[in-house]
Design goal:
The protein is mainly alpha-helical. It is built from 10 helices and 4 strands; from the N terminus they run ααβααβααβααβαα. The N terminus is likely disordered.
Amino acid sequence: MGHGLSRERPHVDEAALQNKSHFTSSEMRKLRSDFEKAAAKDESSTITREQFMTTIHPYVSTWTAGNIFLERLFDAFDANGDKTIDFREFVEGLSVFARGTPEEKLELSFKLYDINRDGYITRKELFKITSQLYSAFYNEDQSARINELVGRLFEDLDVNGDGQLSLTEYKLQAMKEPMIVDFLQQFLAEPGTSPLN
C-alpha cells in the first residue's frame, strides 16, 4: 500500500536463537535493543562495519580493541559474507566471542585469521593478522619473532605440506602454540564491565 522506506524486521526465532546462544532472555532483550539502535540509523535490519564497531565496543576491552581486531571480528561474525551483520549473526558471533566454549572460540579465532574466507589460513594471513594484533600490545617491531613463530607452526602443523592450515591442522596448532589462539581473551571486556551485567 504505502511506499515508505521503513523495512519490516525479518523474523528471527529469538527463543531458538537464545537456546543456541550462551545468553539469558534478559540479555537477549538488551542485545536486541543495542542492535536495533544501530540498525535504526539507516532503517535496515542489518548493521554495517562502522555501526558494528560502535555497537560491539562495550563488549570488548577498550584499551586493546584496535580497529584491525574489530574489522576482523566483523568479518568473522558476517557468516554469509554480505558485508552486513543481521541480528542472528550478531548474537551468534557475540555469544561465541564472549562466552563460547574453547572449541567455539577456536573456530572463531580461525575465522579471524582466514582473511579471504576460503577455509584455510596461509602463512601470509597468519603473519599479517598476528603482526597487526601484536601491534596493539607492543610498540617495538615484532616481525622477526612473529615470522619465526609462523614458520615453526607451518613446519610442525602443515601436515599435507600444501602451504595452508585447515581447521583441523589449526586445532592441532592450538595445542602446540596456544598464544596464537589465546589473543581473544585479550580483547574481552573486563569481568563485571560488560553491558550485559
